[in-house]
Amino acid sequence: MAAETHLQGVEISAAQFFDIWHHYDSDGNGYLDGKELQNFVQELQQARKKAGLELTPEMKAFVDQYGKSTDGKIGIVELAQVLPTEENFLLFFRCQQLKSSEDFMQTWRKYDTDHSGFIETEELKSFLKDLLQKANKQIDDSKLTEYTQIMLRMFDANNDGKLELTEMASLLPVQENFLLQFKCVKMCRKEFNKAFELYDQDGNGYIDENELDALLKDLCEKNKKELDINNLATYKKNIMALSDGGKLYRTELALVLCVEN
């Protein structure tokens, strides 16, 4: 099987990395957990042994951490740290600029240039090019186009050719990805509009920090399994990073709350 064969490689290409991720994330929820993670750990060890290769120090630490754990969870970022992936492609997952959700939100603000709520192909290409330049890496345009297409295939869950905020958030490590928690707080457009109008108490068309505080407290209360009220200050700081000078408009808040039409 292709994904298992790829695990035997000395260096894994961007396309092979995509195949591996797609194979093991069998339910397509954006991370490996439970049986998916156990299968990956087991088949990684078997593949390396079959190829006559030792586990790298990163692989060994990974197997030690997750080999017997039934409640582990990893995302694409964690997987990229374990596999000997093509250097330039790996840089996207090691980017210091995206070391926190707040940094990520500010970066999103920069690259969603038309404020459409999506990063489209050309915007994504600019984003990836910038990351490589920050790491002092040069890359030719054809390779950059290939990486852009693979990133789209990897993160574009609804196959619409553009990335939503929550899809792009897969570039963050699972533990630091507060948007994964908000994925479970889905609202329909009607519910969201009603909530926005309720918390936009002065009716000025945007939510400020105090109004957001009230909204988040209620969301935490209603979604105790997914959201932890002790993380309220972090949620608020990360979401306000999307705001325009302290003003959080309807379209931006809808991105975080994964509003469904």
TrEMBL record:
Function, in words: Buffers cytosolic calcium. May stimulate a membrane Ca(2+)-ATPase and a 3',5'-cyclic nucleotide phosphodiesterase.
UniProt record similarity statement: Belongs to the calbindin family.
The name this protein goes by in its record: Calbindin
PANTHER family membership: CALBINDIN
GO cellular component: cytosol; dendritic spine; GABA-ergic synapse; glutamatergic synapse; neuronal cell body; nucleus; terminal bouton
UniProt keyword annotation of Metal-binding present: yes
Organism encoding this protein: Pelodiscus sinensis (Chinese softshell turtle)
Swiss-Prot/TrEMBL keywords: Acetylation, Calcium, Metal-binding, Repeat, Vitamin D
Keyword Hydrolase: no
Domain annotation EF-hand: ranges: 12-47, 99-134, 143-178, 187-222
Record-level GO BP terms: locomotory behavior; long-term memory; metanephric collecting duct development; metanephric connecting tubule development; metanephric distal convoluted tubule development; metanephric part of ureteric bud development; regulation of long-term synaptic potentiation; retina layer formation
The gene coding this protein: CALB1
PROSITE patterns for the chain: EF_HAND_1 (PS00018), EF_HAND_2 (PS50222)
GO MF annotations, alphabetized: calcium ion binding involved in regulation of postsynaptic cytosolic calcium ion concentration; calcium ion binding involved in regulation of presynaptic cytosolic calcium ion concentration; vitamin D binding; zinc ion binding
